[in-house]
């Protein structure tokens, strides 16, 4: 018991984080959307811009996607077929999956969410169904997203589980030498900053046949040619048959649900195995609204305009990096962690920023170590130069003002737990 | 290893079922919706009515729900807030959950699917967070839906797991006598027919404090006053604080996603625990289309018209039971299993029915025992009298014709596995 999780302990450790943030009015904001990352609070009408939105290209409020979603619902006259997708499915589902498969040059399936994509594939991978019927040693990166972690117990009923230090290629290579089949489970872009050493991992794949399993929730759309993400970009756009990528279609992509890239186009056997032996059979699909948005978003991904959005995102990242120094500066990814230090100073800072029109997520123990609190920011293509400059100015002003105000009153004994309270 | 699952074995055992059904053209039908359970195939234009649709009240094509879905997307101008619901959420999410909470007199949360609702609560229940911090012995009904089964390994990392025979109240009572905390995990209405002995379970709850966890995917909307389902109906509409119900909002309810009924309205502590310590934190929400449909469906549930739909469903069940004898006859539930016997006769029957305009799901080993194949039917309020009578007539005619044609060629050695290949 408690080999992979200890929910009660996690709840007790992280309770303060939630309570404090909640009391500070930084959780549970109920809003109307104003477009371009702006929101209006339902209670007091206060307007603010979200500096921690994962819609990296601003597609969540792109009216073409929004209209495509509404049109699909109306033209199909239903949200779903009311029977398993294995039996009867709307053409929109086939069309959306075909469009994804062709655009990313993979065999793609859609799921209700990225977490469901993980549930639908990780235990199957562990069972050996994708590795010549031999269960691989399942090696998890310590920082792999919580939805992957949460499946360790299920995977452990099918295979041996090993957790290694973050990006520890050396430990992974050692395991490849010791075991005939090894699968590595990691994020492409980590929601807490940084990325997987994809090149080195591909070297291990080539040398040892290592199976690679990536969560690209933050990489797809954001990075790579036509939004193919970090991993496919490193692969030159050609996924190998020993690689599975799962992705969110609800973040950079701007639609709904998740996706599984099972391997090269035409990986029919693997597709059948995935559809017949897990949650894909009984879980809900993306509804027709989401499917409409997916089709519209794929079409947009192939355009020059899309390349322009990626460029604007990179320009905004550069602009921000020039104004605010972080550990992630110049890594080309859109996630930034601004360390403040004391927990209460961080919460006060976030409160003051919100008053002045900027929502920035405060993050502290147990997500990161005690006394290392800060703000997690996510840059977007549809932030204006003025928004970024004003925010950076305010941040400096308020940090100077509050920098030494913290007492860390609720930061008492104990160490950070690896599991993480809120990772995405 | 393989204490709770053996995916590779399941895949090998169920492969024939999938292959045969697939080859027979009874899987993977790609269609356009025509309303009222009718579909048109995309390839050959063939039109048929779905006799195995879980939209028991016909709400999936109710134009008021469809329009509400499209309107919500357009008026919000987005499918999602692009940040955790814990931080910023649209008023539509609050409104939908408030409407559900008030209508069912429970504390309701929405999730991306019913399976996600299970993932978001079962491991937490096992951890003891809902039972005074003492991990309960988790007792699963052998026939509990596959999405509950699939969480056994995760629950086993938090608590002791016991699986008992279907509806075995005696065994459950014995466990209640032996252990201070026990939780029972079951379906309200079983997707394979039949229901939980709710009255007797409530007696155990009263006597021993038994925690009850029900999957009401097929019960909500279909049964009970204003669609409150089997369990809440038995409870006189008042959920106890030792009961959790999960439900689909995508079946009888006619919208998208799933719901968790955490306990009585105002169960704030449990709500916070659920939101902070599991998939609710990072999983996607129902998109705004689904939220619009949920609000419209709740409103419909409170009307006389809705009571009329429930009555029409019961009338159709009675009509069917008068024409076709099944083991489930007169149980008041909408799911019927018509046993044919031989596997190939069943598939041929389903093929002929489809040619004649009726889709009926063939079900055979390993979902049920070898040589006991048949059709799983689901009755709907929006089936016409003529449809039911024509179908029953055809069924009789074709059964007489094909009854002894089967050779059971692909039904070879081995016994039925409890896990089931496709249960919902």
TrEMBL record, chains A, B:
InterPro entries: Aminotransferase_I/II_large (IPR004839), AON_synthase_class-II (IPR050087), PyrdxlP-dep_Trfase (IPR015424), PyrdxlP-dep_Trfase_major (IPR015421), PyrdxlP-dep_Trfase_small (IPR015422). It is an enzyme of class 2 (transferase). GO terms for biological process: biotin biosynthetic process. It holds the Pfam family Aminotran_1_2. Its cofactor is pyridoxal 5'-phosphate. Residues 48-392 form the Aminotransferase class I/classII large domain. Keywords: Aminotransferase, Pyridoxal phosphate, Transferase. GO terms for molecular function: 8-amino-7-oxononanoate synthase activity; pyridoxal phosphate binding; transaminase activity. Its EC number is 2.3.1.47. The keyword Zinc does not apply. It comes from the Bacteria. Gene3D superfamilies: Aspartate Aminotransferase, domain 1, Type I PLP-dependent aspartate aminotransferase-like (Major domain). It catalyses: 6-carboxyhexanoyl-[ACP] + L-alanine + H(+) = (8S)-8-amino-7-oxononanoate + holo-[ACP] + CO2. This is 8-amino-7-oxononanoate synthase.
């Amino acid at each position: 018991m408690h080999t992979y999780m200890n929910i009660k302990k996690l709840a007790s450790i992280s309770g303060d984080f939630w309570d404090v943030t909640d009391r500070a009015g930084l959780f549970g904001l109920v809003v109307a959307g104003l477009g371009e990352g702006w929101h209006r609070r339902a209670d007091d009408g206060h307007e603010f811009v979200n500096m921690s939105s994962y819609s990296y290209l601003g597609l969540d409020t792109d009216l073409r996607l929004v209209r495509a979603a509404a049109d699909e619902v109306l033209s199909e006259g239903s949200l779903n077929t009311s029977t398993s997708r294995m039996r009867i499915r709307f053409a929109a589902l086939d069309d959306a999956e075909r469009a994804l498969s062709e655009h990313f040059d993979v065999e793609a399936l859609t799921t209700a969410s990225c977490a469901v994509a993980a549930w639908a594939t990780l235990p199957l991978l562990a069972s050996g169904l994708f590795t010549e019927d031999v269960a691989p040693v399942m090696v998890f990166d310590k920082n792999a997203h919580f939805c992957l972690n949460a499946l360790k117990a299920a995977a452990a009923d099918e295979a041996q589980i090993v957790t290694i230090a973050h990006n520890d290629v050396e430990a992974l290579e050692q395991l490849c030498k010791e075991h005939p089949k090894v699968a590595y489970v990691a994020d492409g872009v980590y929601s807490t900053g940084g990325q997987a050493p994809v090149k080195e991992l591909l070297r291990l794949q080539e040398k040892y046949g290592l199976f690679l399993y990536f969560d690209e929730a933050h990489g797809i759309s954001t990075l790579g040619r036509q939004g193919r993400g970090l991993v496919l970009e490193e692969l030159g756009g050609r996924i190998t048959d020993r690689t599975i990528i799962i992705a969110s279609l609800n973040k950079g992509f701007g639609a709904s649900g998740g996706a599984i890239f099972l391997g090269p186009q035409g990986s029919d056997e693997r597709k059948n195995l995935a559809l017949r032996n897990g949650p894909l059979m009984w879980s809900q699909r993306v509804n027709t609204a989401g499917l409409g948005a997916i089709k519209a978003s794929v079409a947009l991904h192939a355009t020059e305009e899309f390349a322009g959005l990626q460029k604007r995102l990179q320009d905004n990242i550069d602009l921000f990096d020039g104004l605010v120094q972080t550990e992630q500066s110049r890594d080309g990814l859109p996630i930034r962690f601004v360390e403040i230090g004391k927990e209460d100073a961080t919460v006060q800072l976030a409160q003051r920023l919100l008053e002045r029109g900027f929502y920035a997520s405060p993050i502290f123990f147990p997500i990161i170590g005690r006394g290392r609190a800060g703000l997690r920011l996510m840059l977007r293509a549809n932030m204006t130069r003025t928004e970024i400059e004003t925010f950076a100015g305010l941040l400096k002003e308020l940090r100077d003002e509050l920098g030494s105000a913290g007492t860390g009153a609720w930061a008492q004994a104990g160490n950070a737990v690896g599991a993480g309270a809120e990772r995405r």
